[in-house]
Design brief:
The complex is a heterodimer of chains A (about 375) and B (about 400).
Chain A: H1 12-29, H2 33-39, H3 44-52, H4 55-58, H5 73-86, H6 88-107, H7 110-120, E1 129-131, E2 147-151, E3 154-165, E4 172-179, E5 182-189, E6 195-200, E7 211-222, H8 235-267, E8 269-270, E9 273-274, H9 279-307, H10 313-338, H11 349-361
Parallel strand pairs in A: 1-4
Antiparallel strand pairs in A: 2-3, 3-7, 4-5, 6-7, 8-9
Helix pairs in contact in A: 1-5, 3-6, 5-6, 5-8, 6-7, 6-8, 8-9, 8-10, 8-11, 9-10, 10-11
Chain B: H1 8-34, H2 78-92, H3 94-97, H4 105-113, H5 116-122, E1 127-130, E2 146-150, E3 153-164, E4 171-177, E5 187-193, E6 199-204, E7 215-226, E8 230-231, H6 241-278, H7 294-321, H8 327-352, H9 354-357, H10 363-370, H11 380-392
Classes of the chains: A alpha+beta (about 375), B alpha+beta (about 400).
Chain lengths: ~375, ~400
């Protein structure tokens, strides 16, 4: 491995991408994030406009219909932070096809790549999704209760999943299941008779994102649809990438809460002066500022290891743990600084507070 | 392009400094904690090494050029190399690092602002820095020590406390005001040699931690020094540029203090990890933190915070190497590092139970030592104030 310069600075390309995504998300969504949340839906054209940017497609080789540009986990963290800064639901929805396609591209067999990637690597956004989380106490992505059993030339899946984004419309989903103690991913088609999409879930946050409970009942999957074929896949790597991605999303939400509270504290007058003039508020703002930066740097650190092709188990684990804790702290500060106004849904900080709770809990909802 | 994978060169620096810390500092850490005020003679060998030096190219009055890594080269910036080194050395022992000869804050000031002639005379001497007074701590603009020009000599009067290396140094950089009415712009610094009549060491403090480092009080009573011993210009300008210039020295040293907290807290984390693993628990960064034991989760959180401290510190140093203004980032690093370094060391003592309280191990000492990092060279609160003013774009009058 070539010894790259150690650097905290973005390249021209990275800076351009950051600015472009930030600008695009803002222009597309404008001031409708509140409406999206209230109406519990992301307009299809919003997702399409973000998809039009081509961030996912560009990293896919030309033979599968992509642009064959360099695949970069670092670039993906930058994109996710910007999207989540705008809206967490949008960030997850618009990058969902990457969450499905990137693992196939990295760990799938040639047959799997040829069969599935061209289906979704398209100018039109087509939903496909990932089912990792399970609705139970003590859920852990490394020891799943959804079981896979080999039966003849197929695997039979049984179990329950939750927080499966856009499951109702998704043509395919990657389902994580426990095969004799080893975690595996299976490609499951929408029309599989063993796959039952439940009711749309009602959750604390991300109202705009459709998520569903999914039940797998003797769901038979052809052996050829086990990700990576007979050897299975590098599930640990899959987790490392999703943990890094979730950290990036946490950074985005936290930054949104920080910036809103910062600006508000300069406007809001009490006792004859802006509340920002008081240390009690100003010190919270300072803490939010450096914790957002710390979260981002932890995410970049994990992404740097991934980018170098190195194992990022420790970095991605610590980064997600940190992002989970700090997102809760920062989004809480955001509401607190606005006081009673922060509790009212007219301001976005209450939404950041609800959405932010997901960072520590969720697994596998995005990837870099 | 962003890349936070340490280079080979960074790993080499880390490795060699760690070897030094392990071989020389760690073995005598407890000894000089117990024998407070005794000069660690084992450090005399560092006398000949110029830890703080100015580059040969640097000429008087010329801004220091950014030590930026050039296009193809894999050059390691000097500030980044410094924070990496300090972390490793402080992993060995913070009190001893503060006792390294010729590496005091006074030396940093001389390197930064001395004229060539002054550097010739004092560059190889060990210099302490005397700013704080009984009535002037964080508000260093309010110092009352005075300097009056009398013919070819400055006459200094006042009392200076909390001076690091007060006893062991050769010379002291003393801050005093030449014109009380001029406020901050009247504050200048002066080089006073040990043995100058009217200049005395009044007492040495007994401290919570970093006991290997001597902290003393200077008394100046009609102390006369040559006119040319003033650092920088003697002219009192209407602006506070001069004072700000001196305070800028602290932009450069704050990441160093942050890396001190980093080194001490990492030492505590590593010792705690060793004990956890000895008891048969594997720390493998795998299970959902909610399914880990409380001990494991606390441990992972300490490690995550330690990593966050390091990245904020390295960023501030890296920016300096690249010639970027880092006032906010330097304070962010120190605010985070000083506070969390302390919390981590306290937590390690807690997790270790009786082992954490006992003087058989160094953890209790690290908990005492690290506390200073949230205090000296700007308390955590002062750092928060600087960060807040910068991110809120408020003046010091608006946000007091």
């Amino acid at each position: 491995m070539e010894d790259r310069d150690f650097s905290f600075g973005m390249s021209e390309e990275q800076r351009t991408m950051k600015e472009t995504v930030g600008r695009l998300a803002k222009s597309v969504v404008s001031d409708s994030t509140h409406d999206m949340d209230e109406k519990r839906a992301i307009p299809t054209e919003f997702i399409q406009k973000v998809w039009d940017l081509g961030a996912t497609i560009s990293a896919i080789p030309e033979e599968f219909g992509g642009y064959g540009m360099e695949y970069s986990p670092l670039m993906n963290t930058i994109i996710l932070e910007e999207l989540a800064f705008c809206d967490m639901s949008l960030a997850i929805a618009a990058t969902l096809p990457s969450t499905f396609m990137f693992p196939i591209l990295e760990m799938g067999t040639d047959e799997q790549k040829k069969k599935y990637i061209p289906l979704y690597c398209d100018a039109t956004y087509k939903p496909c999704t990932v089912a990792i989380n399970e609705p139970r106490f003590k859920f852990d992505a490394i020891s799943l209760e959804t079981k896979a059993e080999k039966k003849g030339n197929a695997y039979v899946l049984n179990g329950k999943k939750c927080f499966v984004p856009m499951a109702k419309d998704a043509g395919h989903m990657l389902v994580a299941a426990n095969l004799d103690g080893a975690m595996n991913l299976f490609i499951v088609a929408k029309d599989n008779p063993g796959l039952k999409i439940g009711e749309r879930e009602k959750n604390i946050g991300m109202y705009a994102l459709e998520t569903y409970g999914v039940t797998l009942e003797n769901c038979e999957v052809p052996a050829s649809d086990r990700l990576g074929g007979e050897q299975g896949c590098d599930y640990a790597r899959f987790l490392q990438k999703s943990r890094t991605a979730i950290s990036a999303i946490g950074t985005g939400i936290s930054r949104a809460s920080f910036e809103y509270a910062r600006d508000y504290s300069k406007e809001r007058q009490q006792f004859g002066e802006p509340i920002a003039f008081r240390q009690a508020i100003a010190f919270m703002i300072a803490e939010m500022a450096y914790e957002v930066d710390a979260m981002r740097l932890m995410t970049w650190k994990a992404a740097s290891a991934l980018e170098a092709g190195r194992d990022a188990k420790r970095e991605s684990y610590l980064s997600k743990l940190y992002a989970g804790e700090m997102t809760m702290k920062i989004t809480d500060y955001g509401v607190q600084i606005l006081g009673g106004h922060g509790f009212i849904r007219d301001h976005p900080v209450e939404r950041y507070y609800r959405n932010g709770r997901g960072i520590a809990v969720l697994e596998g909802m995005a990837t870099v | 392009m962003i890349n936070l994978e340490p280079t080979n060169k960074m790993n080499q620096v880390k490795g060699s400094m760690n070897g030094m810390a392990k071989g020389i500092l760690r073995p005598i850490a407890r000894k000089y904690d117990e024998q407070e005020h005794e000069a660690p003679k084992e450090l005399d060998m560092f006398r000949s090494i110029k830890i703080m030096n100015r580059s040969k190219k640097k000429k008087e009055g010329e801004e220091k050029k950014a030590d930026a890594p050039s296009g193809g080269g894999k050059k390691l910036g000097s500030n980044l190399a410094m924070v990496i080194s300090i972390e490793e050395m402080c992993w060995g022992d913070l009190g001893l690092v503060l006792s390294l000869p010729n590496a005091g804050l006074g030396n940093a000031a001389i390197v930064a602002v001395a004229t060539d002639e002054q550097f010739e005379r004092f560059g190889s001497k060990w210099a302490s820095m005397a700013i704080t007074e009984p009535g002037s701590g964080s508000d260093s603009g309010s110092i009352t020590a005075t300097a009056k020009l009398d013919g070819n000599e400055w006459v200094l009067n006042g009392e200076k406390i909390f001076v690091t290396c007060a006893d062991r140094c050769d010379i002291a950089v003393i801050w005093a005001t030449v014109d009380k009415k001029a406020g901050k712009s009247g504050i200048k610094s002066f080089i006073v040699e040990k043995g100058t009549p009217g200049f005395s060491l009044d007492k040495l403090e007994h401290k919570l931690g970093i006991r290997a480092s001597d902290t003393g009080t200077y008394v100046l009573q009609d102390c006369r020094i040559p006119k040319e011993n003033i650092l920088g210009s003697a002219e009192v300008k209407q602006t506070t540029e001069g004072f700000k210039g001196v305070m800028k020295t602290f932009d450069n040293t704050r990441p160093l203090v942050a890396s001190m907290a980093l080194g001490v807290s990492r030492a505590a984390i590593e010792f705690t990890k060793e004990k956890i693993e000895e008891s048969g628990i594997t720390l493998d960064y795998n299970a959902n933190p909610n399914n880990c034991s409380s001990l494991e989760k606390e441990f992972y959180l300490m490690e995550a915070n330690n990593e966050a401290m390091r990245l904020l510190t390295w960023r501030a140093a890296w920016m300096m190497d690249n010639g970027e203004f880092n006032n906010t980032e330097a304070s962010m690093a120190k605010a985070k590092s000083g506070r969390y370094g302390t919390l981590i060391c306290q937590k390690c003592c807690e997790l270790l139970g009786p082992l954490g309280i006992s003087c058989e191990n160094l953890t209790e000492k690290w908990m005492r030592d690290v506390k200073i990092c949230d205090i000296f060279e700007g308390t955590g609160q002062v750092q928060h104030l600087i960060v807040a003013r910068n991110v809120l774009e408020l003046s010091s009058k608006q946000l007091k």
